[in-house]
User: Which sequence fits this backbone?
């Protein structure tokens, strides 16, 4: 399932999206998803917490983290792990890669169209590729 071309979502669209992914649309989940799906974006849990709490009733930090974990497990959003201290939640679940600027901390999308990949190494017997994440780390030119 894809969230492409659905931005920005209104509250009714958010409820429909959550239901399509098998997620019970509680008020807090709706508030968090509504904040996420205003545009394709990469946000930290802290930015989501701050943004949701400026728009709606108070949502706890634990609720935000638990909800983001649920959204990731169901495939609604992608978790982009830059390093153990830096995790982004990506509202764009279409196939794409990322560019991360080490100096600015900005994460941006790179389309997979026109990119060719070398063959993957042999996988262990009985396994298959579930997903492939590529993060290109860049610095500002000097």
Assistant:
């Amino acid at each position: 399932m894809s969230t492409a071309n659905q931005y920005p979502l209104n509250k009714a669209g958010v409820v429909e999206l959550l239901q399509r992914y098998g997620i019970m649309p509680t008020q807090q989940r709706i508030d968090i998803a509504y904040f996420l799906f205003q545009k394709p974006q990469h946000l930290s849990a802290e930015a989501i917490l701050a943004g949701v709490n400026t728009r709606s009733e108070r949502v706890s930090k634990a609720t935000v983290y638990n909800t983001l974990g649920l959204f990731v497990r169901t495939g609604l959003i992608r978790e982009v792990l830059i390093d153990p201290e830096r995790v982004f939640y990506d509202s764009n679940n279409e196939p794409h890669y990322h560019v991360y600027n080490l100096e600015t901390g900005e994460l941006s999308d790179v389309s997979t169209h026109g990119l060719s990949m070398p063959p993957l190494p042999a996988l262990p017997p009985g396994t298959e590729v579930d997903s492939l994440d590529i993060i290109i780390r860049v610095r500002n030119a000097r």
Q: What stands out?
A: The two ends are 42 Å apart (CA to CA). The helical segments are 11-20, 27-36, 45-55, 61-74.
